[in-house]
Design a protein that fits this description.
300 residues; alpha/beta; 2 domains; six-stranded mixed beta sheet; four-stranded antiparallel beta sheet; 29% strand; binds adenosine-5'-triphosphate
């Protein structure tokens, strides 16, 4: 019995003779956040559009909440899929207030219930004070939060995000990616995001599908992609530096600090003191940045 919320099985997408997606398979459990990561032209958007129902699949199938919505034989219309979308350019209606933008897809609710749902979603994305504002009065990050509220308002079975942060500056991107992850987890939303930015993918996703020329070359947790990249292509897509795995082998909690013992290898242990907010478990693996300003070099 299928327990997955989203099941993509051996999907092909063609544009005429050209095959943009080749036998792509992945699954997402309910509430799980996935990401399609890869360079420009590798087929990420084509696969996302096929899941949304904007492109037909030429082979394979897409099953959402145990309902087949795409196969070579039949395609459910996008508006009947219970799939929400967030786009790169926010795509808010410029002539509608924030409140009406968010309420737009809420059909079948009476006015009072609709207003309550809109306010609930605006509070969730911390835009409760902006209900009467218009899109042009908001910053890019605020507009994207409204777009997210609008997509989440009808409680879709799946949320698709197409490069949702790419028109924002780098610092805001990572910050928003983290916020959006917390929000999607809080609402138990199942979501699949497209990005070419690995930092964004790592900030957001439980599982990442690395794509290369139409293929999903590896679909795994961020940690496993680091630990066991399937191919050199994946290793390169994930990190351009050397990998230095550290495992937490010991933890001692002080009153205002935590002392960790990190193992670099069986006989190399590194002590590390952090604030009480860095809460890590023994056995956890870390990736670290080396700050060369503080490095000490010894002559051989
Ligand atoms: N409507 C179309 N007609 C013909 N070819 C297309 C069409 N849309 C996309 N392609 C081609 O399919 C391939 C995959 O495109 P797709 O947009 O899925 O890639 P992507 O990984 O999302 O890239 P990007 O990050 O640049 O958006 C590319 O070679 C592209 O030129």
């Amino acid at each position: 019995m299928a327990t997955e919320q989203l099941q993509i099985d051996a999907v092909d997408v063609h544009y005429g003779q050209f095959q943009a997606v080749k036998g792509a398979s992945l699954t997402l459990a309910r509430g799980e956040l996935g990401c399609l990561l890869g360079a420009s032209g590798c087929g990420k958007t084509s696969l996302l559009r096929a899941i949304a129902g904007f492109e037909p699949v030429s082979a394979g199938s897409v099953v959402l909440h145990q309902r087949q919505i795409s196969s070579a034989q039949a395609t459910t219309l996008p508006e009947h899929r219970q799939v929400g979308m967030v786009f790169q350019d926010f795509a808010l209606f410029p002539h509608l207030s924030v409140r009406r933008n968010v309420g737009f897809g809420l059909t079948g609710l009476d006015r009072k219930a609709q207003a309550a749902r809109v306010q609930e979603l605006l509070e969730l994305v911390e835009m409760g004070d902006f209900a009467r504002a218009y899109p042009h009065e908001l910053s890019g990050g605020q507009q994207q939060r409204v777009a997210l509220a609008r997509a989440l308002a009808p409680a879709p079975e799946l949320l698709l995000l197409d490069e949702p942060f790419s028109s924002l500056d780098t610092e805001l991107r990572e910050q928003l990616a983290g916020q959006v992850r917390r929000l999607l987890k809080q609402t138990g939303t199942t979501a699949l995001m497209v990005t070419h930015d690995r930092r964004e993918a790592f900030a957001m996703a439980d599982r990442i599908a690395v794509m290369e020329q139409g293929h999903i070359v590896q679909y795994d947790t961020p940690l496993n992609l680091f630990r066991a990249p399937a191919t050199p292509f994946v290793a390169n897509a994930i990190t351009r530096g050397a990998l230095l795995p550290l495992e937490i082998v010991n933890r001692t909690d002080g009153r205002d600090h935590i002392l960790y013992e990190l193992a670099l290898s069986a006989d190399q242990r590194v002590p590390c003191r952090t604030g009480p907010d860095i809460d890590l478990a023994v056995g956890e693996l870390l990736s670290v940045h080396i700050d060369l300003d503080n490095a000490v070099a010894f002559s051989p």
